[in-house]
Each structure stands twice: as structure tokens, then as C-alpha cells.
Specification:
- By secondary structure, this protein is mainly β.
- It has one domain: Immunoglobulin-like, CATH 2.60.40.1250.
- It is built from one helix and eleven strands; from the N terminus they run αβββββββββββ.
- Strands 1-2-8-5 form a four-stranded antiparallel sheet, with no helix packed on it. It has a four-stranded antiparallel sheet with strand order 6-7-3-10, with no helix packed on it. A three-stranded antiparallel sheet has the order 4-9-11, with no helix packed on it.
- Strand 1 and strand 2 form a beta hairpin.
- It starts with a helix and ends with a strand.
- The N terminus is likely disordered.
Length: 150
């Protein structure tokens, strides 16, 4: 009887784990002080296996492009556009019927931030992205961040 209960427990745990939505992207965030009032914000996506996220500049009508969104803060000015680095691949996607640009393994997004008067504050917001592999796409996701600027 103990063997049957143990076997059923293992099967139940395995099925429960498989039923959970997976997210093969692990995000990390950092800020680096460049001068008295200037910081560099960095968001890094570490992407598992054959999964990939879509570039900020992927084609219209296609998958959700990655976008860094900053919450409004009157003490902060976002300077310029977010820079994207990683091994970008560009292909015509039959599913979306458009040219798409995507990044696998590691993608890094950097943004220059200016702070008024050198005061201490936070930078917060979220990353919106979509992750796919060659067989499936997961629903678009958002991951929040909140970092102290010191």
C-alpha cells in the first residue's frame, strides 16, 4: 500500500508541475552611477534553451516586441531611447506573416537616466515581452522592477 501511495504522489507532483505556466526568461536589473546626476539602467534577460524574446524593432503585425516601461517620476528624466544588445536574428515568420527580429540566450537593455538635483529616489517600471520557441509561444508577460538611485 505504501508503494502505491508513493507512486501516486510522484505522479501527482509531476502532473502538477507540468501544468504550471513556465517562464523561460530570468530578468535581472541594475543601475550604475555615471556622474552626480546621471545613471545607466540595465535590464538583462537570460533566456533558457531554444526560447527567444522579440526585439524592440520587430515587424508590425507580429509578436509583442520587448519594451522597457518606466513609471512617471518627476525627479527623473529618461534620456534618449533604450539600447538593445544581443545576438539578433531576423527571419520571415510564417505564423505571423511578417519579418521578425528575436534574441536568444542573453539580451541586454540599457537606458540613460538623469536625476534632478542629485536627490535620492527610485526608478521603477516593468518590462513587457513575449517568449517563443520553434513550437509555441507563451502569453505576453510583464516583469516589474524598482531600484534605488543613490
Amino acid at each position: 500500500m505504501k508503494k502505491i501511495v508513493s507512486l501516486l504522489s510522484v505522479i501527482w507532483i509531476t502532473v502538477s508541475a507540468a501544468a504550471q505556466i513556465q517562464d523561460p526568461v530570468d530578468w535581472s536589473y541594475s543601475v550604475k552611477k555615471v556622474s552626480a546626476d546621471t545613471y545607466t539602467f540595465t535590464a538583462t534577460a537570460n533566456i533558457e534553451g531554444d526560447w527567444h524574446i522579440y526585439s524592440q524593432t520587430t515587424g508590425k503585425g507580429g509578436p509583442v516586441p520587448t519594451k522597457i516601461n518606466f513609471n512617471k517620476n518627476p525627479l527623473i528624466t529618461v534620456v534618449g531611447t533604450t539600447k538593445e544588445t544581443g545576438q539578433v536574428k531576423q527571419v520571415y515568420d510564417e505564423l505571423f506573416k511578417t519579418t521578425v527580429r528575436f534574441i536568444g540566450e542573453t539580451a541586454t537593455y540599457t537606458q540613460t537616466i538623469k536625476v534632478r538635483g542629485g536627490v535620492k529616489t527610485n526608478i521603477s517600471g516593468f518590462v513587457a515581452y513575449m517568449v517563443c520557441d520553434d513550437r509555441q509561444c507563451l502569453p505576453p508577460s510583464k516583469k516589474t522592477f524598482d531600484l534605488k538611485l543613490q
